[in-house]
Structure formats: structure tokens, C-alpha cells
Amino acid sequence: MIGLPDGSVVNSSGGTAYLALRPLLADYVLSMPRGAQVIYPKDSAQIVSMGDIFPGAKVLEAGVGSGALTCSLLRAVGERGEVHSFELREEFAAVARKNVAAFFGNEMPNWHLTIGDVADNGTEGFDRIILDMLSPQDALDMVAKSLLPGGVFIGYIATTTQLSDLVEALREYGGFTEPLAWETLVRDWHAEGLAVRPDHRMIAHTAFLVRARKLAPGVTAPLRRRKPSKGIEAYQAKKAVAAAGAAALAAAEPVELAEISE
Predict the structure, then answer these.
(1) In this prediction, what percent of the chain has a pLDDT beyond 90?
(2) Domain that includes residue 111, residue range
(3) Which residues form the tRNA (adenine(58)-N(1))-methyltransferase catalytic subunit TRM61 C-terminal domain (predicted)?
(4) Can you name the residues that pair with 147 across neighbouring β-strands?
(5) SS3 for 78?
(6) Which residues participate in the annotated binding site for S-adenosyl-L-methionine?
């Protein structure tokens, strides 16, 4: 196999023929060692495209997981760009570091990996920020401070509850455009002569993506001209109940347990 061009056929000692091709990034991330669940190629592609990750961009991401999205970001920003990654768990960061180095063939000088909470990030001037974490809305103070005006924020979340919380938090926080939320479903097709039909299996829901852009300082986005929905009313009622419960719990006096003697 050594010295042959991509797309060559090699035979094993047992006579079995194999087609030898250098793996694509999409092939690599689905077979590389994992510390955490990887972001699927279909979602990485959406993040790079809809997030407008461009050559020379300065990008912040958290958490790194196994490094799948990191590879896509490093490719997109090129040598002139920077990718700053945060990961809470040291064992995940170690796996990601090895995976990224294995894919590119060496450690990337424009990749800065930090083990810690992204909310503590003190670097500013980012063009793009991508957060893959349980509660990305908890880091909105950091996002607002670190993202340049016109910059793109993308949240990667798994459930409808997280989706609702992030979208409403962005609206309430202010200083961002109206959030756009979506998911991507990918279905292969069988095509053989006149037998053209969808495959029986598909890659359906893996995550939701939420995108918003930061506004200039002091600017408020125009109000949506849309009839208020019952969903908004239910969400506000839910928040009011939760806030009331938290206030009652904080105001409750601690109960001392008397020692029981026989």
C-alpha cells in the first residue's frame, strides 16, 4: 500500500481485495477514539455553514468532547484563524488533543485548549462562539462580553426543554437578534436503475442548533410583529411558579431536629 495513490486496490495475504482511500473528515470523526459523544458531521457542517466560519476567524468553542467539531473549525479558519476551546473534564480534553493531532498529523499552533469553565473566559474579540453544553444560557454574560458586534453565537443542545430555555434567555437578555432554531435530518437514498427509494434507516435527531447575532452596543432589536402564542404564556407561568417556589424555600426557617431519647 505504501507509495500507491488514493483509490488503489490492495489484496490481503488471503486474497481479499480492499479499496484503499484516505479517510475523509466525516469518516474519521465517526471512527476515532471517543471520550464523549461526538458532534455528527451533519451538525458540524451546519455549524460551519450557518455559523459562517470563515478563513481567519477567531472562534471560541465549549465543550470540546472528543474533538470532532474542533477539527471542522480548525479546517474552516485556516492557518490565519484561531480556535479557542474549553473543556471541563481533563480526560475528554486528553482524548480531543490526541484526535486532533492524529487527524492533522501534528499539534495545531492556532488551537488553544483550556481545561476549565468557559464562563471564566477572559479573552474578547471573537468572531464566532459555539457552546455545546448543558445550559449555554448560563454563559450569556461571557458571550455578550467576548463576541464582537455582528458576531455569530450558536448553541448546540439536545432536548426541547434546553431549546426553549436558550431561546427565551436570548430574548430576555437583549443585545442579540431574534434566535433561529432548527435541526437537520439526513436520509440516504438507494438508487439502482429504476429502483429509486429512500433508505430504510436515516440519521434523524441528534441535536438542536440555535443561532443569534450580537447587536451593536446599546442597540435593541425591533420587536417581532407576531401574535403572542400560548406557549409564551405557559413558559412565563412556569418561570413564575419556579421563582415563587425558590423564594418560599429561601424564606423558610430552618427546622431543628430534637434528639429523641428513649
Answers:
(1) 78
(2) 24-219
(3) 29-192
(4) 126
(5) coil
(6) 66-69, 87, 117, 132
